[in-house]
Design brief:
Largest sheet: 6 strands, antiparallel
Helix content: 55-70%
Number of domains: 2
Radius of gyration: 39 Å
Number of helices: 8
CATH topology of the largest domain: Helix Hairpins
Strand order of the largest sheet: 1-6-2-3-4-5
Mean pLDDT: 79
Oligomer: single chain
CATH class of the largest domain: Mainly Alpha
Order of helices and strands: HHHHHHHHEEEEEE
CATH architecture of the largest domain: Orthogonal Bundle
Shape: elongated
Number of strands: 6
């Protein structure tokens, strides 16, 4: 049996090449673990964020149309009930007029002078004639009542027709907004479906990093503001929040954490942004308008430095997003489809202002 040849040691050049390759692989592995999303992923994230934002804008418009539809439906029901009552009154007047007309027809078939001459009891005839004159006067009054009632009935019917026509228009707008929302959400989901699980994880990691960065920046800004406030005359005292009501609002908001966002939902299982704020304020016996833009006009404007827990905080130029301030530069809000109600620094989105209802 021959001797096995002992392998020769690698040359210095080969060792150098192997070392370089291993180092490059280590750098690649390290970079993959902590890298920012690739340009393609960043583009997808940007598109998904834009589509979700557009869907939320459409959701707030949908909420507005829905609130208007409910109001118009209530008005239409009220007017139609009024029309029904008017028709009943009109029918009663017509019945009474028919009785008077029939009585006059039976008694006025002969000339009054002839009837006086032939009547065996002239005094009784004259008494009956007086009654008939009274009946004629009553008939005139009934006719005027009937004319007035018919005029009111026609006006009510015209108002009901106009309200129902507006209701149809609002219903069509409601359907159009619903279609827009569903289209935007479907487009966003289609983009996400094209990504692998690892790619979606990268996007979620980047979102978490962005939130952490915003929180750190906000904490630094709050620290600077606090040091500035220690110098006399730099800040006016903040107005007090709504006391026990503010506590009820914040407590309700905390209880909803983890529940899913649902467009045009007002609870209890899911909420959109203004649905959450409206429900939280109802817990404190305060009624807010349905749309975030209308909630902006539902109270006193509050400077950012004067924010108190329970205040409403608004975002984006068109105020289509709203949350509930809870202190320490943070809010509770319903973010968007596919996300759950969460705590978030208010510096993550374009901050527009705050309101204390």
């Amino acid at each position: 049996m021959g001797k096995r040849r002992k392998p020769s040691p690698p040359s210095r050049a080969r060792l150098a090449a192997l070392s370089t390759a291993m180092a490059g692989g280590a750098v690649l592995a390290s970079g993959t673990a902590h890298a920012e999303p690739t340009p393609a992923l960043a583009s997808v994230k940007e598109q998904v964020d834009r589509l979700n934002e557009e869907a939320e804008q459409s959701t707030e418009r949908y909420n507005g149309f829905q609130a208007k539809q409910q109001k118009l439906q209530g008005e239409a029901n009220r007017i139609q009930e009024k029309v029904a009552r008017g028709q009943e009154a009109m029918n009663e007047l017509r019945t009474r007029l028919g009785v008077v007309a029939a009585d006059q027809y039976r008694n006025n078939g002969m000339d009054p002078g002839v009837r006086l001459m032939l009547d065996s009891d002239p005094a009784a005839y004259l008494e009956r004639a007086s009654v008939q004159n009274h009946v004629a006067g009553s008939q005139a009054n009934l006719l005027k009542q009937a004319q007035d009632e018919q005029r009111r009935l026609d006006q009510d019917r015209a108002e009901a027709a106009a309200t129902l026509a507006e209701l149809d228009t609002v219903g069509a707008s409601l359907g159009a907004q619903r279609n827009q929302i569903q289209t935007k959400l479907a487009q966003a989901q289609a983009l996400l479906n094209k990504l692998s699980a690892a790619e979606r994880a990268k996007i979620n990691a980047q979102e978490s990093a962005d939130k952490a960065k915003a929180a750190a920046q906000q904490a630094a800004a709050a620290d600077r503001a606090s040091r500035s406030a220690e110098r006399p005359g730099t800040n006016a005292p903040a107005p007090p929040a709504a006391g026990g009501r503010a506590a009820a609002i914040v407590q309700f908001a905390y209880a909803q954490l983890g529940k899913p966002y649902g467009w045009s939902m007002t609870g209890p299982g899911s909420f959109d942004c203004s649905g959450l704020t409206g429900a939280a304020y109802r817990a404190a016996d305060i009624k807010l308008p349905r749309m975030s833009q209308d909630q902006w006009n539902a109270g006193t404007r509050i400077a950012r430095g004067d924010l108190q827990p329970g205040d409403l905080v608004f975002f984006y130029n068109d105020l289509h997003h709203v949350g509930i301030y809870i202190g320490d530069g943070k809010m509770i809000h319903a973010p968007r489809t596919g996300k759950n109600i969460e705590v978030l620094p208010i510096g993550v989105m374009p901050y527009m202002g705050a309101v204390r209802p």
